[in-house]
Design a protein that fits this description.
By secondary structure, this protein is an alpha/beta fold. The model has no long low-confidence stretch (mean pLDDT 86).
């Protein structure tokens, strides 16, 4: 006698939950071990003065993405010019790992990130530049950014000033683009698009598991993400912009270049859905 279909479904859901739990546990252990190993390497590098650890950080991000099941698909190439102010839309804390794995550099982040569990500790370890984004502090906060650029270091900037669910682009804040002008750095626009690990668009439920707003508890969101099989991220590297325009113009040009692949991907997904509907 065959088992009842509902009983089979319940059994399969139980197996899925157990598998997801094991996946999350293994990922946590691997992340801890990988973080410790790279921390020791970076510490030894600083003690022996073999470098500032930028390439070790790239290696850390690449390894962490593999552990988390994040696949990357790169469209375009980063400019060989140095330094670069790399400006990107901001969707998730995964953005830091994705961008940091592709090219060495330091990140700009809001002051309160220092207090976040896990992420704050990693941010401090990675020489992150913390800013308050208060209007009266903008001129003062340019100094460490310009200093890094003057030394030839690439700097990552999220000019929206916050994260979104990836379906829209918020107006770019222009104040920190002044650093590119003062530091003589070309601006490299980058668009990040998160997709299903097999290439299709994320559903709203899946999107919520990988995109993150600062009003959600980080640890709860992080654990839910660990339970999932993984995700893909398209990295659209757009043509660089010379630092010869006023900061507001730089911000507008950067936003236009980042918005283009987001609209293109949205258009292709819509055509795909329409084609699927017409074939039914």
């Amino acid at each position: 006698m065959l088992p009842h279909p509902n009983r089979v479904k319940r059994a399969m859901r139980h197996v899925d939950r157990v598998g997801a739990g094991l996946r999350a546990a293994v990922r946590i252990l691997l992340l801890l071990a990988w973080t410790f190993l790279l921390f020791v390497q970076q510490l030894l590098g600083l003690l022996l003065r073999t470098g500032d650890g930028r390439h070790i950080r790239c290696r850390f991000y690449r390894g962490a993405l593999r552990i988390l099941g994040v696949r990357m698909m790169v469209r375009g190439q980063f400019s060989p010019r140095r330094p670069l102010l790399i400006a990107s839309n901001h969707v998730s804390y995964l953005d830091i790992f994705v961008l940091g794995s592709r090219i060495p550099g330091v990140f700009i982040s809001k002051d309160d990130v220092q207090q976040w569990p896990v992420i704050g500790w990693i941010a401090r370890l990675q020489n992150t530049i913390f800013v308050s984004r208060k209007p009266g502090q903008a001129r003062h906060e340019l100094n460490p950014i310009v200093a890094h650029l003057t030394l030839g270091h690439n700097v990552f900037l999220f000019p929206e000033g916050t994260s979104t669910d990836g379906r829209q682009l918020l107006p770019f804040k222009s104040s920190l683009f002044e650093a590119a002008i003062q530091g003589g750095a070309y601006v490299q626009p980058v668009a990040l698009v998160y997709r299903h690990r097999h290439g299709g668009p994320l559903s709203l439920k899946e999107r919520a598991l990988y995109t993150w707003g600062t009003d959600a508890p980080f640890l709860t969101h992080f654990v839910k993400m660990l339970l999932r099989p993984g995700v893909a991220c398209e990295i659209w590297v757009r043509p660089e912009i010379p630092p010869t325009s006023p900061r507001k113009t730089l911000a507008q040009l950067t936003q236009t270049r980042i918005a283009a692949p987001l609209r293109h991907r949205e258009h292709l997904d819509l055509l795909g859905l329409q084609h699927a509907d017409s074939g039914r």
